[in-house]
Amino acid sequence: LRRRFAALGHDIDPSTADHLLFTCGSLMTGLVPEIEKIAAYAKHERITIADIDAVAEPVLDARIFDMTNHISAGKYDKAAAVLGDLLRMQTEPIIILGAIGKELRRLYTARMALDGGKDRFWLMELWQMRSDYPAKLLLQAARNVDHEWCKCSLAACQTLDRRMKSEKNIDREGELVRFVMELAAR
Fold first, then answer.
1. Smallest Cα–Cα separation from 68: which of 162, 153, 128, 125?
2. Which has the closest alpha carbon to 164: 154, 176, 155?
3. CB 11 within 8 A of CB 2
4. pLDDT per position in the chain (186 positions), as tens?
5. Helix, strand or coil for residue 74?
6. How far apart are CA 33 and CA 24, in angstroms?
7. Is-contact 82 63, C-beta < 8 A?
8. How many CB atoms lie within 10 A of CB 44?
9. Which residues are CB-contacts of 146 (< 8 A; sequence separation ≥ 6)?
10. How far is it, in rounded angstroms, from Cα 15 to Cα 10?
């Protein structure tokens, strides 16, 4: 990353590079165009998180993390806005729900880590993370929820997943919106 930014007249520190990888994923085929957009946008030599957030297109996992993070922080309007954006982009509701389920499992394990005195390195090993950046973010988000919220939210997600996969004529989009609002109300 640093070489690619340097070739475009910019520099990026390791923490900001972690944010870029978290936001855009680690596949170079997706990163190269994002790096070029960010470099073209940046006003200063040093790339900032604000530069990345202003123009980079986040991968689905990053968007879902944002949505669940907004829910756990009590920012329901922001969570609904992320969900609305994903649905407007015609992301399949079952794909969104699968990503929410993954994030809820990660959040639950982060809550268990906090309750059990574990650290970000434990989470990194458990989820095979290459960087401690997402582990730190997970631990921060887990501080906003309790064990019971995680357990109930994950169970509700599993129930909706079964329903979406087995019931005919289910309004998947409507059920997903209802589920996210129920998460926000817990």
1. 153
2. 176
3. yes
4. 899 999 999 999 999 999 999 999 988 888 999 999 999 999 999 999 999 999 999 999 999 999 999 988 888 899 999 999 999 999 999 999 999 999 999 999 999 999 999 999 999 999 999 889 999 999 999 999 999 999 999 999 999 999 999 999 999 999 999 999 998 887
5. coil
6. 10
7. yes
8. 9
9. 111
10. 15
118 SS3 class: coil
> What is the value of pTM for the model shown?
0.86
- The answer to whether the beta carbons of residues 4 and 32 sit under 8 Å apart is yes
Find tokens 């997903």 and name the residue. 176
User: Encoding tokens for residue 172?
Assistant: 């998947």
CA-to-CA distance for 51 and 48, rounded, in angstroms? 5
- Give the DSSP per-residue string, 68-79: HHHHHTT-HHHH
Residue type, 55: V
Rounded CA gap, 86 and 92, in Å? 9
